[in-house]
Description:
By secondary structure, this protein is α+β, with helices and mostly antiparallel strands. The protein has three helices and ten strands, in the order E-H-E-H-E-E-E-E-E-H-E-E-E.
Amino acid sequence: MTPSEPLHWKLVVDCADPHAQAEFWAAALGYRIEDNSGLIGRLLDAGAAPEAATVQIRGRRAWRDLVAVRHPEDPYDEHSGTGLGRRILFQRVPEPKSGKNRIHLDLHPGPERRADEVARLEELGASVLRHVKEPGGEWSVMQDPEGNEFCVH
């Protein structure tokens, strides 16, 4: 059986510091960090969420253990701040990253902008693992501040 309509999805990344990861990836992709403070306030007021599950980030309340970034042009729910399109959710997990990613992002600034983009991402906290040049293309393999691999084509 196949779905009658495309499925909505989000990419979820396990990490040690979700807010730092969200800051990095929002800057890297030109995305916006979701503002869930309205939803959090309503849940706290209703007694449906504990205060200990929240932190103050940039002057507003956020979830302590998760935060998402969304594409700035995609729709979002104004009441919850949750993106309804392209988004990445970062969630805190207790264990460190181990081994190679089984899924990763490819960023495509184009060959004429690749070197500048790699340098910009390094300034944000990423590091270059290696440069690849093959008959099928050229790219840089990088890692984000927590060691998750991604490529810049």
